[in-house]
Amino acid sequence: xxxxxxxxxxxxxxxxxxxxxxxxxxxxxxxxxxxxxxxxxxxxxxxxxxxxxxxxxxxxxxxxxxxxxxxxxxxxxxxxxxxxxxxxxxxxxxxxxxxxxxxxxxxxxxxxxxxxxxxxxxxxxxxxxxxxxxxxxxxxxxxxxxxxxxxxxxxxxxxxxxxxxxxxxxxxxxxxxxxxxxxxxxxxxxxxxxxxxxxxxxxxxxxxxxxxxxxxxxxxxxxxxxxxxxxxxxxxxxxxxxxxxxxxxxxxxxxxxxxxxxxxxxxxxxxxxxxxxxx
Length: 279
What we know:
Blueprint: E1 3-12, E2 15-25, E3 30-34, H1 41-48, E4 56-61, E5 64-65, E6 74-76, H2 88-92, H3 94-98, H4 103-110, H5 113-116, H6 132-146, E7 180-184, H7 192-209, E8 212-217, H8 220-226, E9 229-234, E10 239-245, H9 260-273
Parallel strand pairs: 3-8, 3-9, 6-7, 7-8
Antiparallel strand pairs: 1-2, 1-4, 4-5, 9-10
C-alpha cells in the first residue's frame, strides 16, 4: 500500500476528537473521506500531512513510518491561498523556493507543467486576473510540486509524466513514488458548472500524472462520482463507520451519474450518515 494510517487517535483537552482511524490509499488511487462537519476529517488530514502528530497510531508512506514528518505528502486546503502580490509562476514555485531551490531553477522546473494544468499563458499574470477555476488549477499545481516528485519527472509528449525510477531516492531519502495529494474540499467554493468542469479536469490530470489522491468532501454524489473507495466518518469522536468500494472502476462514463448503481451507492452513504447502516 502506497500511503496509509493505522489506528490513529487524537485528543484535545483530554477528549478524543478521532479514534482508531485507519485509511489506505493505493498508488494511483482516489479515496474519499466523507462525513459531517466537526467529525474530525481535517484533524485527520493534519496528522496525515505531518502538520500534527497523533496521540495513538502511525502514518506510513511506502511502508516507511512518516508519523509527524511534514513535506512527504502534499496538502491543499479549501482556499487556494495564492499570494496576490506574486505572479502565478512565482506562486506555483513557492514550495520549491522554501525548500532552498534557486528561483531561476525552480521556474524552469515548473514551467513545463503549465500547459499540462491548462495554465499556459498565465505564468506572468497575478491571481486577481484568474477565474476561480484557474486559481484552483494553479493551487493544485503548487500542491503537486510540493510533493517533491512531480518536478523531477519528464513530460510525455502528450502531457503526462514518465514514472520515476522506483529504485531511486526521493525527498527525505525515501523511495521515489508518484505524488500523494491530500485535498480538503478543493472545489466547494466553485459554482456548480465550474465545479463539475474541475472534477473532470482533475480526474484526467491525476490519471495522466499518476497522482494518488485522498479527498475530503461533504457531498455524497461527488464522493461516488470521483472515488475508488469511500470512507465514511461519523460520531464524536470521529471514527470510520463504513467503507464502500465504488464500481465500475475509473474512468467512468458520464452516464454513470444517472445509473441505478450510482443511486445505490449514494443511498448507502446517506443511510450511514443518518445512522441507518454501518459495516
